[in-house]
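Reopening this ticket.

The earlier resolution said the output was attached, but the attachment link was broken on my side. Pasting everything inline this time so it's all in one place.
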Amino acid sequence: MPTDPVAVAAPQGCTNLKLRQLSRAVTRHYDAYVAPTGLKNTQYSLLSHVVKLGPIRPSDLATWMRLDASTLTRNLQPLIAQGWVTLSPGEDARSRLVEATDGGRAKRAEGQRAWKQAQLALNDRLGPPQVAALHALLDDCLQRLDAGDDDE
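Inline output:
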């Protein structure tokens, strides 16, 4: 019975480089669909999380999205400037809450339609089984890496 050569072969090359190359290619693909809405790929993702989870403390949002606080703050600024998101006082003087505005929810809905077209086109190009396998592999890798963080 033949063995799977991928399962037996030792990894070749730099995993980080390969992931970054894939990430850039996928980002270009999604950006081509989402950009006409006036959103960048990262802005759509952030706005979607705020709509889904908000009102939410920035620290909780950063944790949920696997971002550091400074990256989240920097990425929120254009959404606040466009009036799609507000940063308002929280429960005490030191806390803040991020929340989508009505305009932000409308912009997210517009972006979501474009994102769905991008996802369908990616599924067509790569094949649904390949995309599902990629998702499963990425989820497994994230889980393993997160478990490793607990050991440090």
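Reporter confirms the inline version is readable. Helices lie at 5-8, 15-34, 41-53, 58-65, 69-81, 102-126, 128-151. The chain has one domain: 14-151.
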